[in-house]
Task: structure prediction
Amino acid sequence: MSKPEFDLVIECDGATKKKTQARIGPSSWGFVALGPWGNVIYEDCGVIPQHCTSNEAEYWAVIHALRFAKDLGYVKALEIRSDSLNMIRQLEGKYGFRSEALNHLATIVVDVLDTYEKVSLLWVPRKWNSHADALANAAFEHNKNAAIRRINRCEFEMMPQGHRDFEKEYDA
Result:
């Protein structure tokens, strides 16, 4: 069997509910981390403390996923999958930004992605991102910032102890 292309694959999604005319509202994020062989090794979700747009929520999902990936310490090749074509194209530099907030969040993400040897940004149809979507929506249903986590026991040793330096530097 050949070596997998990526050490870690992240499927992420953001959600915004009860949007106002300004297109902002309560928001949440969720992500699923897949090991090199496609097995779920970690999942997490939470509520974003401030109201934001759905595009901003998508970026927060990636930021939280990157916190996890950095804490693992061994990841050199990373793939990010999202059903947000807008975010993927912005991170690739193909789309511009209409909002300073999005530009700021994208800068954070790109700065972290630049630290990896290999990065792939992949748009996937919404139906292929249902696990991350369910986590983002579960954060609303459970109305909590605490994470919902499921850890594959054989990979427990690789789990991070917390989001130390990365969280301090990039927390909103």
